[in-house]
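Lab notebook, design round three. We kept the backbone fixed and only want residue identities now. Task for the bench partner: fill in a sequence for the structure below.
Input structure tokens:
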């Protein structure tokens, strides 16, 4: 691990890795330190069955062909499921209430409510009303439970905590899944970056000239530092800044708290979905149990079950077995009780307590969408910031994190007077 460098990069997720690559292009040196034992951060795939990969974090190349990872995947010969994007479009969602699909008439009413709610949220944002989503949608509608549950899941916080402006700026179709895992794609793309793993940053000292970073493996001195850790980590105080970060930066961090989306991957020993089963479902019951389910999206005998917001955090606290049972129950809601006999394995996530992120992604509090720009702003021309939370437009995504790393590397090169 080089201990004298131009740039100390903290965190080897998509943002840290893209920053390292961009700095190399400009000729600047860097030392990239990663606290955990692997690169990729929230991009991470695990094998749920031989040859079948499940993404615990990011899974879809949001934006499809426009996503920079689409070209990277093509270059690496990694297969994207490019013909599956339509399954995620709202008009193709399948709605399942109390174990039965909505009738055509109910479905039309449900989609009308979804459309009307999205329009109300967009109108509020357009009129500069950055308020909680719960203030602009009809919460008494019979289809409010699936919509609120879906927002809580895809956003990570419940509708009374989600900013209309932030929500509207981020809307985008899910795009392409990666056959062998988005996490594996990021890991393959990042292999050429030099990273010091198991090197947790404990202190960032900017009291003197340059920046000094303390880790259990030793001290590193740099001209500047680039911090790419989540706002969950920044808010936890686990990295001690000396002197402390200025008030405007601390405010940006606290107004961009982490939301939680948890995923359960369930693998079956045979095709329990049937030929027409492939797709995206929203299932909810009178007892409040709601989840989104992606069944067999890539033609494999697996389902991904999503639950987020307050419910997701609560379920995570019940433990792994409860998450597994919940996931199998939701698949059974849709495909019948026989599926239970065919469960072969599951993987459950626990993002709200994940020690290296402390949540799934950052969400602006109502009225605070502007704080992403403050989070991205350097402090004293020495402390730079990147990561998904610093992006407005691609926030909460892997490619947004990637783009933020390039943006920060260019700011640093300009600051250090390097020709670009
Ligand atoms: C459940 C879930 C589903 C998602 N789905 C999608 C999706 O489908 N599509 C999409 O585009 N995005 C998705 N995302 C979001 C996407 O994964 C993230 O936005 C992106 O990976 C974040 O990258 P990053 O570089 O900003 O942060 P991270 O990946 O969190 O990288 C930061 C790194 O810093 C390290 N670190 C933390 N503390 C320290 C320390 N003290 N010292 C040194 N290192 C430290 C961490 O270990 C981590 O590796 C999902 C995320 C989750 C959790």
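Proposed sequence:
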């Amino acid at each position: 691990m080089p201990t004298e460098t131009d740039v100390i990069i903290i965190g080897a997720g998509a943002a840290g890795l893209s920053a390292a690559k961009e700095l190399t292009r400009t000729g600047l040196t860097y030392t990239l330190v990663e606290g955990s034992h692997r690169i990729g951060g929230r991009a991470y795939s695990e094998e749920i069955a031989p040859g079948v990969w499940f993404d615990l974090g990011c899974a879809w190349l949001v934006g499809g062909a426009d996503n920079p990872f689409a070209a990277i995947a093509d270059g690496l010969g990694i297969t994207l499921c490019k013909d599956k994007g339509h399954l995620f479009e709202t008009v193709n969602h399948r709605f399942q209430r109390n174990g039965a699909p909505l009738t055509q008439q109910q479905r039309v009413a449900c989609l009308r409510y979804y459309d009307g709610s999205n329009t109300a949220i967009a109108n509020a944002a357009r009129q500069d009303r950055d308020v909680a989503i719960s203030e602009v949608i009809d919460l008494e509608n019979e289809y409010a439970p699936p919509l609120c549950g879906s927002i809580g899941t895809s956003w990570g916080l419940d509708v009374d905590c989600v900013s209309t402006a932030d929500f509207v700026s981020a809307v985008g179709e899910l795009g392409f899944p990666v056959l062998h895992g988005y996490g594996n794609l990021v890991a393959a793309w990042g292999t050429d970056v030099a990273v010091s793993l198991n090197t947790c940053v404990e202190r960032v000292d900017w009291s003197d000239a340059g920046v000094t970073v303390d880790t259990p493996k030793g001290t590193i001195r740099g001209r500047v530092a680039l911090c790419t850790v989540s706002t969950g980590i920044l808010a936890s105080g686990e990295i001690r800044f000396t002197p402390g970060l200025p008030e405007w930066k601390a405010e940006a961090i606290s107004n961009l708290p982490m939301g939680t989306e948890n995923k359960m991957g369930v693998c079956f020993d045979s095709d329990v979905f049937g030929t027409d089963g492939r797709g995206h479902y929203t299932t909810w019951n009178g007892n409040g149990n709601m989840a989104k389910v992606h069944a067999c999206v890539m033609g494999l005998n697996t389902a991904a079950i999503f639950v987020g917001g307050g419910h997701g955090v609560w379920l995570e606290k019940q433990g792994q077995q409860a998450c597994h049972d919940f996931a199998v129950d939701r698949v059974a809601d849709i495909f019948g009780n026989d599926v239970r006999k065919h469960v072969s394995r599951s993987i459950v996530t626990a993002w709200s307590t994940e020690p290296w992120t402390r949540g799934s992604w950052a969400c602006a509090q109502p009225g605070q969408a502007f704080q992403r720009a403050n989070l991205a702003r350097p402090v004293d021309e020495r402390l730079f910031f990147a990561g998904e939370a610093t992006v407005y437009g691609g926030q909460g995504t892997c490619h947004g994190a990637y783009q933020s790393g390039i943006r920060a590397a260019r700011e640093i090169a300009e600051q250090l007077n390097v020709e670009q």
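Keep this in mind before ordering anything: The chain is about 35% helix and 20% strand.
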